[in-house]
Design brief:
Distance between the termini: 95 Å
Low-confidence stretches: 24-35
Number of helices: 2
Helix content: 10-25%
Mean pLDDT: 85
Number of strands: 26
């Protein structure tokens, strides 16, 4: 009798386990059916770091700062002024919007180092993002649009990548820096000004009102596309000692400077 009850208990246990396995195996998991909308305000959500919930603001201490919602600047005032080194600003997918007679959206009060700005948009200011006097800094995944002067200004040993500069007077200015994988379009005067000793690669510079890209001295351009711009040339070399290697260019000035190396591709489909 003992052996029979033991065997029966074993059979019942196995049956229960099989039922549980079948339930988990047939359970369906799925993500949300609706696509995510724009980010909602995170004013009430405390994160590590310092929240930015109003403008203007001057940052005087190193650290991580994050924007909590769309912010509009006060008339005649800048947006965010950085007055120290070692600052990260996470825009959180939100917009910084200029007020009337605006200052710059994000700028520095001195030659500070290690400034990082990411993930959002800066619209309707004088200059959108001006870190031209910063050293060893980075701006990425930011859109600068409809600014009165420059979209982005990038300085020494600093980088701009995965950006969009559109509907500004001048899309991008870079000096002793790096610009990668940006879309530069519909800027009124000039798409990109590459001043000196800069690396510019993988960018799309098209449909700007004036020239596409103008380059000064000792720059390297690789794998960019310059086409459909409104000025005389899509790519204009005004300096010397430049390397242009593998760019797609529709209209190029025919008199490169001394010591320039130019290897471009003309794409007939872009030039019609």
């Amino acid at each position: 009798m003992t052996w029979s009850w033991s065997r029966l208990n074993t059979v019942l246990l196995l049956a229960v386990l099989l039922v549980l396995i079948a339930m988990f195996a047939t359970r369906a998991y799925g993500g949300p059916l609706d696509p995510p909308g724009p980010p909602g305000s995170t004013d009430g959500v405390r994160q590590p770091g310092t929240p930015i919930s109003s403008l203007p603001i001057t940052i005087t201490q190193p650290g991580y700062y994050y924007v909590t919602r769309d912010l509009t600047g006060a008339p005649g005032q800048p947006g965010i002024t950085i007055s120290t080194s070692n600052v990260t600003i996470d825009l959180g997918g939100f917009r910084l919007l200029g007020g009337s007679s605006p200052g710059d959206g994000i700028s520095l009060s001195g030659g500070f180092r290690n400034i990082a700005i990411r993930n959002g948009s800066v619209r309707g200011w004088n200059d959108g993002v001006d870190v031209s006097i910063a050293l060893q800094s980075s701006v990425h995944d930011v859109q600068a649009s409809s600014n009165l002067n420059y979209g982005f200004r990038i300085g020494a040993r600093s980088s701009l990548r995965d950006c969009n500069a559109s509907l500004n007077a001048i899309g991008i200015e870079v000096n002793f820096g790096v610009v990668r994988n940006c879309v530069v379009t519909e800027n009124a005067i000039l798409g990109m000004a590459v001043l000196n000793f800069s690396l510019v690669e993988g960018n799309f510079v098209s449909f700007n009102g004036g020239k596409g890209t103008e380059i000064g001295d000792n720059n390297t351009l690789r794998g960019n596309e310059h086409s459909g711009n409104g000025g005389v040339n899509d790519l204009n070399v005004v300096g010397a000692g430049n390397v242009v290697d593998g760019d797609v260019v529709c209209r190029f000035d025919t008199s490169p400077g001394p010591n320039d190396f130019v290897q471009i591709t003309s794409h007939p489909g872009l030039c019609n």
